[in-house]
Design a protein that fits this description.
Layout lengths: L1 E8 L5 E7 L2 E6 L2 E2 L2 E2 L1 H15 L9 E8 L9 H25 L3 E6 L1 H8 L10 H13 L19 H17 L2
Parallel strand pairs: 1-6, 6-7
Antiparallel strand pairs: 1-2, 2-3, 4-5
Length: 183
């Protein structure tokens, strides 16, 4: 059975990456709808990915799917209200993933991963930019993808012109799963 990885970077506007291999992936950013993150849209995306992997339907185990959700307990230097709102976002991402898995009875598992845990495995010393996690993460993705790196893969919309950090992190979470399975 082939392994498939999904990385979810939570927050007010989460991002998801589905990955078969480091160069075969798809990323998606979920914008706010009426001031709240689109948890239904995330559920539909995850369910669509799982259905694409299992075209014959339930019980046909073509792919074994691991979903990795960043498990952040609080955001440093943020207010209690901000941390609470962030926690709600993490919970909504977790619920969307669990509902997608159970609604189709797919062979998939949801794994919570602390930021320092996945960062330690996917980052290398040459990636580091002092006091800039976003630049460090981008350097990691550029190193992993090499000549296959295309910044447009990490644009949240077709009219964007800057790489989205949440999409970068979701890619790195999926890549973490890939590395854990291929060590």
């Amino acid at each position: 059975m082939t392994k498939f990885y999904i990385g979810i970077d939570p927050g007010s506007e989460p991002a998801v990456t589905s990955m078969l291999s480091p160069t075969k992936f798809k990323t998606k950013k979920f914008k706010k709808v009426k001031g709240k993150f689109d948890s239904v849209g995330m559920y539909e995306f995850l369910l669509g990915e799982l259905l694409d992997l299992h075209p014959e339907g339930r019980g046909i185990d073509v792919y074994d799917v691991d979903i990795f959700l960043e498990d952040v307990h609080s955001v440093f230097n943020s207010s209690a209200k901000s941390n609470f709102q962030f926690g709600i976002g993490v919970g909504e991402c977790r619920a969307a993933a669990k509902i997608a898995i159970h609604s189709g009875d797919f062979p998939a598992t949801l794994k919570l991963v602390q930021p320092k845990t996945w960062q330690k495995l996917v980052r290398e010393p040459g990636d580091k930019v002092i006091k800039d996690n976003k630049a460090t993460a981008l350097n990691s993705v550029k190193r992993i993808l090499g000549d296959n790196f295309n910044e447009e893969d990490f644009f949240p919309t077709k009219i964007s012109y800057t790489v989205n950090h949440d999409m970068i992190d979701s890619y790195l979470l999926a890549y973490y799963g890939y590395l854990k399975n291929n060590q």
